[in-house]
Specification:
This protein is α/β, with parallel strands linked by helices and about 500 residues long. It is built from 18 helices and 22 strands. The protein folds into 2 domains: about 230 residues, P-loop containing nucleotide triphosphate hydrolases (Rossmann fold, 3-Layer(aba) Sandwich); about 240 residues, 3-Layer(aba) Sandwich (Rossmann fold).
Length: about 500
């Protein structure tokens, strides 16, 4: 299938998000679509698949002009969009998910279970997936759920699959499996549009790459004819320079001490100290227990044993909760910003105000609208949040701008300790650099930062020390000056190193 989109423009009300954008997909290729958060990538693909309608421009498929009015129409014509947030029914089986809304029936609309079972096994075998069709989808890993979504796409004679940030929550093994499936389907004649911020994936998997910037088409290049720096310049309009803005800052007094913290079944005997002016990195494989440790420090999980000491004072963990953590000066930016970090149905103003009540109220009770508005405007300006104003709904922001709002919720509480769990997941390179600058600003002002990250260059670039977690225990602690990706992975997999 050959797709050509030319001069596509799109307005939402008075807000124009695409300006004469172009995109071309050749038959039998894997084509990357890149750009910063808010560049218009997903919007362009939603126009292609009928989720949104264009205001101007043309879409040609195999030389014929088309305009799909609904995603189902696009699917019937062989174009399927697999979204970053999967829309699966987690309490139903794999087979039931595959055929949800498209059940095979016999006479009198009776569901043909035998035919559905046979087709399910056929499509799973086609992808080389060892998944039980009767398994409840929610019991599968995110990576397996992603592959089930691709399997679902194959039931409608799909010719083009659009993948939007498909690896953002996958382990390395799951990424490898996804790539093998993509390559297999490409060999069988399926084309892919691959939306991702991860440069290494683009160069490993894709044939060509197109770049959008601020809703405008910048250009298309063969992967073999470009490099990382070239693409970054196309995406942000300038050379990025040094990605990691971490400065050498004098390490101050201990702020947070954790001693022998244990949560049965998740982690045991975790001890560490983080100081004023320090970024303590936490590395490890997915599932090692890093997030669970942080949620316990923040009071979301109740510890079975251990101590948490803040500014030399022991916290009573018996009835400890996130409200107590906040009041003590501990902030937490969670891994899943949509589910845990934001009230996505509320505005920027509503989200920032929820953690900064004392700054926006008079006499501690009545919200002062002027104070509330001024704080949100300050955040938008200082964090360069791209939006229409303080009443912009969080759900309608790009991923990078949503993450900035989560940061804003905590920055103005002046936390003594800020815990960051995967702070740049799903964020473009420009927004990443801005987040690194925010982290540097925090520690320069005396805060202590704990940063959990699966991005090893990020951990190495921003941390003063790196604690590696292996299967719920401390695998080791490495100072920045001797830290490498190799020795982090050695500790993460249960090995030992000689510093």
């Amino acid at each position: 299938m050959h797709i050509e989109m030319t001069n596509i423009s799109k307005l939402f009300g008075t807000n124009q998000v695409l300006f004469d954008a172009n995109f071309e997909l050749q038959d039998g290729e894997i084509h990357a679509l890149m750009g910063e958060n808010g560049a218009g990538k997903s919007t362009l693909m939603k126009i292609l698949t009928g989720v949104h309608q264009k205001n101007s421009g043309k879409i040609l498929i195999d030389g014929k002009e088309v305009t799909y009015k609904h995603p189902i129409e696009a699917e019937k014509n062989g174009i399927v969009f697999v979204y970053q947030e999967l829309s699966s029914a987690l309490d139903m089986s794999v087979e039931e998910n595959l055929f949800l809304g498209r059940e095979i029936t016999k006479k009198f609309s009776v569901v043909d279970k035998k035919a559905m079972c046979a087709t399910t096994n056929e499509v799973l075998n086609r992808l080389g997936l060892e998944i039980n069709p009767n398994e409840t989808l929610g019991n599968l890993s995110i990576g397996q759920q992603q592959l089930v979504e691709i399997a679902k796409a194959l039931l409608v004679n799909t010719k083009v699959i659009i993948l939007d940030e498909p690896t953002s929550a996958l382990t390395d093994k799951e990424v490898d499996k996804l790539f093998s499936v993509v390559r297999l389907l490409k060999s069988q004649g399926v084309s892919f549009i691959y939306i991702s911020h991860r440069m290494e994936e683009i160069f490993e998997l894709c044939d060509r790459v197109s770049v959008l910037r601020d809703g405008r088409y910048i250009g298309t290049k063969k992967i073999s004819d470009t490099n990382k720096d070239d693409l970054i310049k196309m995406m942000i309009g300038r050379d990025l320079g040094n990605m990691f803005q971490k400065e050498i800052i004098p390490i101050g007094k201990p702020v947070l001490e954790v001693k022998n913290l244990t949560k049965h079944g998740l982690f045991k005997n975790i001890s560490f100290t983080v100081h004023s002016g320090e970024v303590l990195g936490f590395a490890g494989l997915m599932g090692a227990g890093r997030t669970e440790i942080m949620k316990t420090v923040f009071g979301s999980f109740k510890a079975d044993n251990g101590e948490i000491i803040l500014d030399g004072k022991r916290i009573n963990t018996k009835h400890y909760c996130p409200g107590d953590a906040k009041n003590a000066g501990i902030g937490y930016i969670p891994e899943d910003r949509k589910e845990e970090g934001l009230m996505i149905e509320k505005s920027i103003k509503g989200n920032i105000g929820i953690t900064n009540y004392d700054l926006i109220t008079s006499n501690g009770f009545i919200i002062d609208k002027n104070k509330e508005n001024d704080l949100s405007k300050k955040a938008i300006k200082e964090l360069s949040i791209k939006c229409t104003g303080i009443n912009h709904l969080a759900d309608n922001l790009s991923g990078g701008n949503q993450q900035k709002v989560v940061f804003a919720k905590w920055l103005y509480t002046n936390p003594k300790v800020l815990i960051l769990d995967e702070p740049t997941r799903g964020v473009d390179v420009g927004a990443k650099q801005e987040i690194y600058s925010l982290i540097t600003k925090l520690v320069k002002n005396g805060a202590a930062v704990i940063m959990v990250s699966s991005d090893l260059p990020e951990v190495l670039g921003m941390s003063d020390r790196i604690m590696v977690i292996h299967e719920g225990t401390i695998g080791g602690v490495i100072n920045k000056d001797v830290a490498t990706q190799k020795n982090i992975m050695t500790l993460a997999t249960g090995g030992t190193i000689n510093e």
